[in-house]
Amino acid sequence: MDTLLQLGHGLLVCLQPFNLSMLMIGIALGMLVGVLPGLTLVMGVILVLPFTYQMDVASGIILLTAMYVAGTYGGAFTAILFGIPGEPIDVPLLWDGYKMARAGQPAEALGWTLIAAGGGGIISAIIMVALTEPLAEVALKFSSPEYFAVILFGLASVVALAQSSLANALISLCLGLVIATVGTDTTYGTSRFTFGLPILEDGIEFLVVMVGAYGVGEVLARLERGYAGAPVTQTATARTELPSWRQFAAIKWTFIRSTLLGNIIGIIPGAGATVASFVSYGVEGQVGRRKAQLGTGIPEGIVAPQSAATASVGGAMIPLFAIGIPGSGATAVILGAFMLKGIQPGPQVLLHSGELIYAIFASVFLGIFIMCVLGYFAIRPLVRILDFPEAVVSSFVMVFCFIGAFSIRSSVVDLWLMIAFGLVGYLFDRLRFPIAPLVLGVILGPLAEESFLNTMISFGNDWTVFFTRPISGTLMALTCLALVLPLLGALRHWLWPHDFEETPHSQGSP
Amino acid sequence: MFSQRLSMALPYAILFAIAAWFFYLAGQFRFTPRGDNIGPDFWPRLALGAMMAICLVQGVRLVLTGRDDEPGLTEGFAAEDGAAPRSSLLLAAGVTLTLAYGALVTVLGFLIATFAFMVLFSYAGHLRAHRTIWLSSALGAGLIVILFQKVVYVSLPRGIPPFSHLTDLFLGLF
Fold first, then answer.
1. Segment A240-264, tens digit of pLDDT
2. What residue ranges do the domains of chain B occupy?
3. Fewer CB atoms near the end CB (10 Å): N or C, chain B?
């Protein structure tokens, strides 16, 4: 009852004119980001971050969260109607959604997407509200060894779920941790890797790394390929037709299974909407009632990835608010937005700033509702954005990256650093080094170092304390498991490569 | 064949060398030790040491086997996305324009530098719709300056005279 009351208060905060307008803008931007193939969801959220500097924390986080929620849905339109996935999340929608559209049922396909995104999102948001507080109460008992173990587990999960090789992901993470050490050390006051530059004494802002590596790096990578994309036609006839209750009831288990799966995947640090979407489609291909027909244009192939992708949002919010560990790339940016306001999300914030957290919770519910309404009515103008040349859109993205660098300290050094990290991001993309571990390393590095140092000081340099305390020991074991399991997979691949040559990239795709 | 393996291992060799250099620099940090407590060099050296070890293992493995790790979950999409051929010329144009922007933004000011960048970057992307390019760049640069200078209050470079006069003239209109 108390939770519902707080949620009600949160809703009132969301309905304040400025917050509501931020919510609407966030949803519109998130859907645009989802539609545009050159702009990823994380990149979009990062580009909007500078706009939140002058806002109060609630408005800023509501804007970013709304973008995050809507970004998991917007790309479905172009994936289904034109076979253009705006995001990696939307790739599984090509296999059934696009086929259904080509078979003359685009409106029905979009209807299934809307139901999946709305329903999956709402259920996931309910789970988020139900689980965050109990988990935060457990986290309140944490001491520095437990915090270090939690952060390490978060970093290890990101690495283990990396898109390319485990080694590359670990290198990327280590680089992020080193970048985070630049500046004046808080314990000894020692200058580290500053090379005599006064501005580096304050450290390298994670925003510079994020904007550069994701934004500039990605634009350069797409420019190199000449912004190759399929031409878009016939946007004028786009509309949505909702399925009947009977049709929905026939696939309810797909919906429930995918929503829960998406939520659980969202909770795992580092595994965001893309992983949820792919895994859910893969699971549907394994256990679904009509698994043999998957890939021929059936609703299950739309509902499974879409409900999982949107449900992952609520899941990713749970560790962010309960422990202060981001569950996905976008929540890492939201964590950054909190930190820019001097707030470290975690159990203390939930305890002392409950109103703020419940306002954000309420914004997720409200955001999903508005997203569905907007998705139903504003589909035509939304997909028309694809008529705009990508070269122009990319030039705007670059300029927003430049502003992102300027807006931190109004220093041209930050601009140069951002450009440098942009080139690093491009090289990483080219050499198949994942960027997410680098960014997570930069954000979580200082927290990891601080909790590690505190533990060492408090426990007389006894590192075994991480393994002998029950919670930290369990988390350290999970960390080892997260790192060892993919390592075993890689070892198996290395020893018996022929086992893998038959089915590369299959992952449930037809 | 062997030279191909060496080129595959080259990025790891470069990263190893960079990490080794920074590992050395971390050893030069000046601080007063506090009893047995670990110093400010410990954490960066831990990360750099791990990075060097992974680079070494990966580099040696590539030289010996010539095989990279298995692709990941979303790599199929990346491969599909990468169907168009790469153009070094386009990349060079993008990088040059970005570096030029960094060098000139404090001279020309944000307004002029951004307008010029947007125009040139659009042309670099093989777009030849002249009216769209010039109009979107002019509107984009103008609106961004107004939004960030007058609404969000982010301090953007004005440039040096005579370019700063144009920035002031433009901002004076609003």
1. 788 888 998 999 999 999 999 889 8
2. 2-70, 89-172
3. N
